[in-house]
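Summary for the steering committee. The consortium agreed at its last meeting that each partner would contribute one worked example illustrating the joint modelling workflow. Our contribution is presented below. We chose a case with several input lines so that the handling of multiple components could be demonstrated. No manual editing was applied between input and output; the record is shown as generated.
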Amino acid sequence: MKVYNSLTRRDEDFAPMDGREVRMYTCGPTVYNYAHIGNFRAYTFEDILRRTIEFNGWKVKQVMNLTDVDDKTIRGANTLNIPLNAYTDTYKKAFFDDLKKLNIEPAEVYPAATDHIPEMIALVEKLVEKGVAYKSEDGSVYFNVRKFPGYGKLAHIDFDNQRTGARCAADEYDKENVGDFALWKAWEKSDGPVGWDSPWGRGRPGWHIECSAMSMKYLGETFDLHTGGIDNLFPHHENEIAQAEAATGKEFVKTWMHCAHLRVNGEKMSKSLGNFFTLRDLIEKGWSGREIRYVLINAHYRAGLNFAFSALEDARKALSRIDACVEKATEGEAPEWAKKHLEVFTLAVNDDLNIPRAFAALFELVREANAKGAAGTLDVFRKMDKVLGVIFFGKAEKAELPDDIKALLAERAEARKAKNWAESDRLRDEIAAKGWSVKDSKEGQTCTKK
RNA sequence: GGUGGGAUGGCCGAGCGGUUAGGUAGCGGACUGCAAAUCCGCUUACAGCGGUUCAACUCCGCUUCCCACCUCCA
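What follows is the complete predicted structure of the assembly.
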């Protein structure tokens, strides 16, 4: 298996450090709102990644954090005048519901930031002891980026040639360097009831510290994989490395992977453009999680993905073609040609998760199975679906034929037996008007809900 | 201004220095009483301009356009 490592900026052979279990950390949601389909692009990418690892016979221990304390969650809770956890619980639940709708395999651990405040405080203390962090006048603690020589190695940023200050928050005037970031933020009025006691006074953790603290707690000081959206590469992941490595003196993560953003109709998703969709929005519009998953995974994760409703329509048709073929597939020894397609499929997924090429192999299998017969191909479909998770998942339930339709079909069968084509066609129209479509084959009529 | 990634046939979307990506749509054919489904074939796509090469969509340079990051957006 080969993957592109953002840290080294090249494709590398990938295998678990311990030879059997991959320990991976994936940056999860900030639970202040329903997640949008751009967020889910990242989560489906991570799902494909863990499935591919499993496809290769390794075990996975995945940790996905839930950021349940930050500016937005605090603002949301305080606006509604409810406790922080009451506010975030709604969105945590929604997030897990959404993951199920997309057939995303659950991670082994979903640590919430608010359950790990002591671990974070301990890590910050360690950084203060080591002299790489300092307390400011207001009781916040900052990481001094100049004290960590490797700072910038992930983002490959040259900090002497930046537009520093362009987006620098006004309330951070007492930092030693512009690049210094908060490990612990002193309590402010706007925080209201939210806050924890610490050696530096009441406050709350900075954003980055949770990931360093929780990943090391569950995965160890050095682990295999860390992933997220490309926007997390800097500053979030850069800062995680700084915090962890400055504290332990060890390499934090072997391989970093980042997925590109999703655009909608060629534009960045934004509420003002009216092209901002949560998963719920799309499901309300009548699209299934399965169709959405198909669209999200059918582009290489490092390339921008342009999400459009026409792509969902294409997905629906392509999936029904797969369904029709799988319907005919049977158990047994796979024919040679089917094994070939599985080989191509395997090469594709192991080549930095090239899912579009993997799909191409799947469709070659479908085409050939339709032409030569699908006997013995079922297991090949199953194997491919270990990675894709879209073949056997979430198919529309086969609707029971209502009695009136059954009666019409029986009538039609009679008419056809008598070669009364006019009557046969009339009945087909009548059935169609009731929302069902009839197809004829050598085996007889098949009727499905439109 | 810095850094990184892009521009592929109607649409979506892979890929490689010379050999069909794939899906979806369209056209023609086979099959069918007719449809549908399925299969076969087709429409000779690689932003523009130069260069390297026997050969470039693929490498190099320039131009145009797009996107992302440059301190809390997956």
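The radius of gyration of chain A is 27 Å. The domain at 2-259 of chain A is CATH 3.40.50.620 (Rossmann fold).
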